[in-house]
Amino acid sequence: MIVIERKKVKTEKVLAPIFTGTVERTDLIDEATGSKEYRASIITFPPGTRNKFHVHDHEQILYIIRGKGIVADEKEEKVITEGDIVFIPAGEKHWHGATEDSWFSHLFIYSPETKTTF
Hints:
The chain is mostly beta strands. Helix content is 0%, strand content 48%.
């Protein structure tokens, strides 16, 4: 068993092509913690910031920690808030991020084998 103290986990600012602005990323479970099957990270989006339409080749789970966000596929957009859970099937084109008036944080859980295209 491994206990990871939140105060010892680093948060870094990330400006990557998939995002419309700078976000904060906190990696909680990764190869450094010894996990071979899972990755879990927290992403925090400033108001109005989101990722671009993208596709994962594995399933993705989002657990909304705080704020108000939007998750969208090619057919619809849904507002999501603290406590909501979003399951995104492999191969579904989607995006997610903060509304214009709220910060937004979600925990995302995925396979370390996941490839993302956009």
